[in-house]
Automatic annotation (TrEMBL):
Region (Disordered) location: 1-20
Pfam families linked to this entry: Glycos_transf_2
Occurrences of domain Glycosyltransferase 2-like (ranges): 222-344, 480-658
CDD domains associated with the record: GT2_RfbC_Mx_like, GT_2_like_c
Domain of life per record: Bacteria
Protein name per its UniProtKB record: Glycosyltransferase family 2 protein
Biological classification of the source: Bacteria, Pseudomonadati, Pseudomonadota, Alphaproteobacteria, Hyphomicrobiales
Database matches in InterPro entries: Glyco_trans_2-like, Glycosyltransf_2, Nucleotide-diphossugar_trans
Length: 749
């Protein structure tokens, strides 16, 4: 067999819009000059469509080691498409997702053994991406001998293990280890990431310029900039970054807030004279940032306004990315991007890779800024920025805008489109006003609570962030705590004591679902517990099925609020249940989860991130008890995609509406993830709160997946999740796609 046989499909470098269905002819080369003609099917590419499909049924690729490479012209650190091998099975075609690896400048590759029965390779837009932009697609067949040699050079121990398992006939184990050994060493450092994934080439610039030139009626974006005594150098750099935008349809509206440095008005006048898109108004007296921004807003004529400080920098493609999003979705009201910081030497550091729209997180912190772009009519309707909120004037505006925002009309662009200067002495407005900014932030949330007529209160939370403390209805609704258990009396005793004597919630019932305990200590404990009128014990012997046991407990429960709780949970503070219940009773909330830590204080559960480790994983695993997490995420309540079933509260009505736990297909693993995804699909929010904190002695009562039967069951549950929720698992809205997914550590690598 030849060491390399190649199949290539060349496509145009432009996007393939859904409005142009057609067949794209491709030349496929498969070794020794053999040429095969194929149609690279250009199908409807809107959300949920099939995407691009390459027929390889008769090319002999199934069950062979291949390298698949493609280029995504969207340019980024992550692929906006899903690569799938389509396999003919007894129940029809099935898709197997192939997790590609990024190499920078829009290039991605996958190396592995294609599943037996592979008939086609498919590229499908990820959620929220209406079009593909694939410039080239190559499949190269690799010989096993060449791969073993490469793997031995990279990871000799893994390669030796692969050869051993192959020699004893364990092919699956051998293939898994060989694939791991072939993965190239990862990149490290933000500087490296910037070079590979966030540096425009001349080809990128030319492509963007040519694309914009073809747009009809491109949107005018008004960049508003309040200016007060910045250093000339940083102001010139800020102006230069706007004038250097690859998207030319902008105007820069500047309000000079009575700068005392005479160089500032001279510099601004010169810039306005050189470029008619720059408009300047000098205020007669200093009014601070809110008043100055409003003056700049009054100059704006564009349908959208982008907020920019006088010492910050926009990358050359920033307004292009914004305009592209507006053209794609003309109804958008709010667009925001990722950002990083720059120092006095222009060095980039501390990137903030954000999640999608998250109102719960916005209550606590202004995670949106920067770059923030808003429909101008909405800003006007909200009354612009409010004097008196200096330091948190943007947060106040966003909270007021959130009163009238439709989440479907908010878009997060997962790209670094703003460089925030942190150099001391640059004249940044908020440098000396931290305490004042915190007070203004708290006041902004207090006024939101008053506007909405909520009975809640607001207080200063950890690190100065806001905390919204919700009020319970009166009387407090009954919480039915459902605890599946078997034996392990020492664990169950702790959780029952914590619920019945260590929790200050006034209305609790406990439904213990016993899965066939036989140990005398456990049986005695269950008998004593049942004597408490707040406790009932259900006998449910048989194979362990968390979903089935939890469903049975819920059916027997009387409360309108259900709390599914593991038997290895320890209560550490009395107010945890009040926190959960006060959130769960809200009409728009479908499920609530708590902060769970191991006995040594390290974090076990900070919400669930989809796609981590294959299906899903815990956010910020194993961080220390004093670590606030990525940009404070582990000290602020927020929306997440899912929370663990080890401590999950929801209204009974929602539980029944979405169909309860899946006892048939997800007996042990991922049943909580599946339930939360159905909750979100039904239109409800899932919220994680750090203000309900518990200790979790994880998996002590059930043990590890260490038998062939358990492993087979686990693999079947993984298959259920990937088949049922494949696109969602690839695109967690609250975890930035630029971040690594081996673990949810909020890191690039």
């Amino acid at each position: 067999m030849k060491a390399r046989e190649q199949v290539t499909a060349q496509t145009p470098s432009a996007s393939l819009p859904a409005s142009r269905p057609a067949a794209l002819q491709a030349s496929l080369r498969l070794g020794r000059g053999r040429v095969v003609r194929r149609d690279f099917a250009r199908l409807a590419l809107e959300f949920g469509a099939e995407g691009l499909s390459l027929d390889v049924a008769d090319l002999g690729l199934e069950a062979r080691w291949v390298a698949i490479a493609f280029k995504d012209e969207n340019h980024g650190a992550f692929s906006r498409v899903e690569l799938t091998a389509i396999v003919d099975g007894p129940e029809g075609p099935q898709g197997t997702s192939l997790d590609e690896r990024a190499f920078g400048h829009g290039r991605f590759t996958w190396l592995g053994r294609l599943p037996a029965g592979t008939t086609s390779l498919r590229l499908t837009p990820m959620l929220g991406e209406p079009a593909l932009a694939i410039a080239e697609f190559t499949v190269t067949v690799r010989s096993r001998l060449a791969l073993v040699g490469r793997a031995a050079l990279r990871r000799p121990v893994l390669t030796a293990q692969a050869l051993f398992w192959r020699s004893v006939g364990k092919r699956v184990r051998s293939q898994y280890r060989l694939a791991r050994a072939l993965v190239p060493p990862g990149l490290t450092g933000y500087d490296t990431w910037v070079r590979h994934f966030d540096t425009l080439s001349e080809a990128d610039r030319g492509r963007i310029t040519a694309e914009v030139a073809q747009w009809r009626e491109p949107p005018l974006i008004s960049v508003v900039m309040p200016v007060y005594d910045p250093g000339s150098k940083v102001l010139e750099e800020a102006l230069r970054s706007v004038r250097g935008q690859l998207y030319p349809h902008w105007e820069l509206c500047i309000a000079d807030d009575a700068s005392t440095d005479p160089a500032v008005p001279r510099l601004l006048a010169r810039a306005a004279a050189e470029d008619p898109r720059i408009r300047v108004e000098r205020r007669p007296e200093n009014g601070h940032i809110a008043a100055a921004t409003n003056t700049a807003l009054a100059l704006a004529r564009g349908a959208y306004v982008a907020f920019m400080d006088h010492d910050d920098v926009l990358p050359a493609h920033a307004l292009y990315e914004v305009a592209k999003a507006i053209r794609r979705e003309p109804d958008l009201d709010l667009i925001y991007s990722d950002e990083d910081k720059i120092d006095a030497d222009g060095r980039r550091f501390e990137p903030h890779f954000k999640g999608d729209w998250n109102p719960e997180l916005l209550y606590g912190q202004n995670y949106l800024n920067h770059l923030t772009v808003v429909r101008r009519s909405l800003v006007a309707a909200a009354g612009g920025l409010r004097p008196g909120f200096e330091g948190s004037q943007d947060h106040d505006l966003l909270l007021r805008l959130s009163d009238r925002l439709d989440p479907a009309r908010v878009r997060h662009l997962p790209a670094i489109l703003y460089h925030w200067r942190t150099a001391i002495g640059s004249g940044t407005f908020s440098d000396a006003f931290l305490a004042r900014a915190e007070a203004a932030r708290l006041q902004a949330l207090e006024e939101l609570v008053a506007r909405r007529g909520w009975p809640h209160r607001v207080e200063r939370g950890p690190l100065g962030f806001n905390r919204l403390v919700r009020a319970l209805p009166h009387p407090a609704p009954l919480v039915s705590v459902v605890i599946p258990t078997k034996d392990r009396a020492e664990l169950l005793r702790v959780v029952l004591d914590g619920l019945l004597t260590g929790t200050d919630y006034p209305a609790i019932e406990v439904v213990v679902v016993d899965n066939g305990s036989t140990e005398p200590a456990a049986l005695a404990l269950l008998a004593r517990a049942a004597a408490d009128p707040r406790v009932r014990v259900l006998s449910r012997p048989g194979p362990f099925n968390f979903s089935g046991l939890s469903n049975d407990g819920a059916a027997a429960a009387r409360g309108p609020l259900l709390l599914f709780l593991n038997n290895d949970i320890e209560v550490v503070a009395p107010g945890w249940l009040t926190e959960l219940a006060s959130i769960a009773v809200e009409d728009g909330v479908g499920a609530v989860g708590a902060k769970l830590s191991y006995p040594d204080g390290t974090l076990q559960h900070g919400g669930v991130v989809l796609g981590v480790g294959g299906v899903a994983g815990h956010s910020h695993p194993d961080i220390g008890p004093d670590d606030p997490g990525y940009f404070g995420r582990m000290v602020i309540s927020q929306e997440v995609s899912a929370v663990t079933g080890a401590c999950l509260m929801m209204r009974r009505a929602v539980f029944e509406e979405v169909g309860r736990f899946d006892a048939a297909h997800l007996a042990v693993a991922f049943n909580d993830i599946d339930l939360c995804l159905r909750v979100r699909k039904a239109g409800y929010r899932v919220i994680w709160t750090p203000h309900a904190a518990l200790t979790h002695h994880e998996s002590k009562s059930r043990g590890k997946e260490d038998t062939p039967e358990k492993r087979a069951r686990f693999e079947a549950e993984v298959a259920t999740m990937t088949e049922r929720w494949g696109p969602e698992l690839r695109n967690d809205p609250y975890y930035n796609p630029n971040l690594a997914r081996a673990k949810a550590l909020f890191r690039l690598w």
